[in-house]
């Protein structure tokens, strides 16, 4: 197996902006673990049976997350509620002194398993470095109070062509109904960095895998909820202002760098019929990690058979953080080509996504 490298990133951002550095840094990991219940037989035909085995994959996940990378903040997707309660929550607290928060998705109509086998997202944080302040969560189909009349009319009038797993059209429905029918979630954890007393809000999500319009609205929902979380965080905190809060937004966005979701998060206006969508939280988020890395460092972050691409992100504002180091991903593509393998997981990689690990330096 090719060894992935934790590589330093150049100082071009600091040189350009002349921003002072606090010298404090944190490591942050985002990782889609691939739920054992999403190992669809029709998709993962290329994976040998022994590498589909959950106990085998779990041992590799434990090695990567707890030993190899062990980031200060870990944002994990496709973690089942059963696995969170039965292993990750207690193990991370008792063996590592990590706190954690978690939210599971609601089971869809087709779900035949128990509710605790449903997946969700979790955030784990090093209590030696951070003090937990609060946790908030949202179901991304709960639009009440987050969209105005014009926006709701847009959601009702916009028609989505629904497709099956092969991408073939099967029906049509309004964007509003499609949004209501999805079960994605987002988690918000507010922390205080003990060394610098900096306030953080860490967000973890896993957007729906199809339909740009759906993903864009899910992202807007997260941003509007984030505004409320920041406002709540500052209540009763003497001397704390909006400008002192730093945001880290991580997760599997199921969106490529040229997608409407990424354009929206960067602060660009995304036009839809007579509506222009602009990220209301652009003063807190305008930058993602791949803007500061060479294109040669990552070919994909998801290697799920025919579905390959850069889908896993870490976002922040470039006046708050500098990307100091990043775990490169190109070695995985090289390995698959050399081994003549179609995708992940395989013998050495437990998920169809690769873990994205960064070191971020705080800017004063």
Structure keywords:
27% helix, alpha+beta, single chain, 9 helices, 364 residues, 6-stranded mixed beta sheet, Deoxyribonuclease I, Chain A
What does the secondary structure layout of this molecule look like, with pairings?
Blueprint: E1 6-8, H1 12-17, E2 21-32, H2 49-52, H3 54-69, E3 73-80, H4 81-96, E4 98-104, E5 119-126, E6 130-139, H5 149-157, E7 159-163, E8 169-174, H6 175-181, E9 185-193, E10 199-206, H7 212-234, E11 245-252, H8 260-265, E12 270-272, E13 275-277, E14 287-288, E15 302-304, E16 307-309, E17 312-316, E18 321-327, H9 330-339, E19 356-363
Parallel strand pairs: 2-3, 10-11
Antiparallel strand pairs: 1-18, 2-19, 3-5, 4-5, 6-9, 7-8, 9-10, 11-17, 12-13, 14-17, 15-16, 18-19
Write down the Rg.
20 Å
Shape: globular
Share of β-strand residues: 25-35%
Structural class: alpha+beta
Number of separate helices: 9
> How would you name the CATH homologous superfamily?
Endonuclease/exonuclease/phosphatase
Task: Report, as a whole number of angstroms, the end-to-end distance.
Answer: 40 Å
Strand order, biggest sheet?
Answer: 1-18-19-2-3-5-4
Q: What's the count of strands?
A: 19
Counted up, domains total 1
Q: Please describe the biggest sheet, giving its number of strands, its sense, and whether it closes into a barrel.
A: 7 strands, mixed
- Helicity, in percent? 25-40%
Order of helices and strands: EHEHHEHEEEHEEHEEHEHEEEEEEEHE
Summarize the model shown:
The protein has helices at residues 12-17, 49-52, 54-69, 81-96, 149-157, 175-181, 212-234, 260-265, 330-339; strands at 6-8, 21-32, 73-80, 98-104, 119-126, 130-139, 159-163, 169-174, 185-193, 199-206, 245-252, 270-272, 275-277, 287-288, 302-304, 307-309, 312-316, 321-327, 356-363. It has 364 residues and is an alpha+beta fold.
């Amino acid at each position: 197996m090719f060894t992935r490298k934790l590589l330093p990133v150049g100082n071009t951002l600091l040189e350009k902006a002349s921003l002072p550095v606090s010298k404090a840094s944190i490591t942050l990991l985002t990782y889609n673990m691939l739920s054992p219940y999403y190992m669809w037989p029709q998709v993962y035909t290329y994976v040998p049976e022994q590498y589909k085995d959950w106990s085998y994959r779990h041992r590799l996940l434990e090695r990567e997350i707890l030993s190899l990378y062990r980031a200060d903040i870990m944002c994990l997707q496709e973690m089942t509620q059963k696995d969170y309660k039965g292993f990750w929550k207690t193990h991370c607290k008792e063996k590592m002194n990590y706190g954690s928060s978690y939210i599971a998705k609601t089971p869809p109509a087709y779900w035949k398993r128990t509710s605790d086998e449903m997946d969700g997202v979790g955030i784990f944080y090093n209590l030696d470095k951070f003090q937990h302040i609060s946790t908030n969560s949202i179901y991304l189909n709960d639009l009440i109070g987050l969209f105005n009349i014009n926006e709701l009319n847009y959601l009702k009038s916009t028609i989505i062509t629904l497709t099956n797993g092969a991408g073939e059209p099967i029906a049509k429905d309004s964007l509003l109904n499609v949004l209501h029918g999805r079960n994605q979630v987002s988690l918000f954890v507010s922390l205080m960095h003990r060394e610098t007393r900096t306030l953080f809000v860490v967000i973890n999500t896993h957007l729906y895998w199809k339909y740009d319009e759906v993903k864009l609205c899910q992202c807007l929902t997260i941003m509007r909820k984030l505004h409320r979380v920041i406002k709540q965080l500052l209540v009763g905190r003497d001397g704390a202002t909006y400008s002192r809060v730093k945001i880290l937004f991580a997760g599997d966005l199921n969106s490529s760098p040229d997608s409407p979701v990424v354009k929206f998060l960067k602060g660009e206006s995304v036009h839809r019929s007579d509506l222009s969508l602009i990220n209301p939280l652009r003063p807190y988020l305008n930058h993602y990690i791949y803007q500061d890395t060479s294109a040669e460092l990552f070919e994909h972050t998801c290697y799920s058979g025919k579905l390959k691409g850069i889908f896993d992100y870490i976002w922040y504002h470039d006046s708050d953080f500098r990307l100091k180091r990043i775990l490169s991903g190109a070695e995985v593509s090289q390995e698959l080509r050399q081994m003549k393998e179609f995708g992940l997981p395989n013998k050495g990689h437990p998920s169809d996504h690769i873990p994205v690990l960064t070191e971020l330096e705080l800017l004063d």
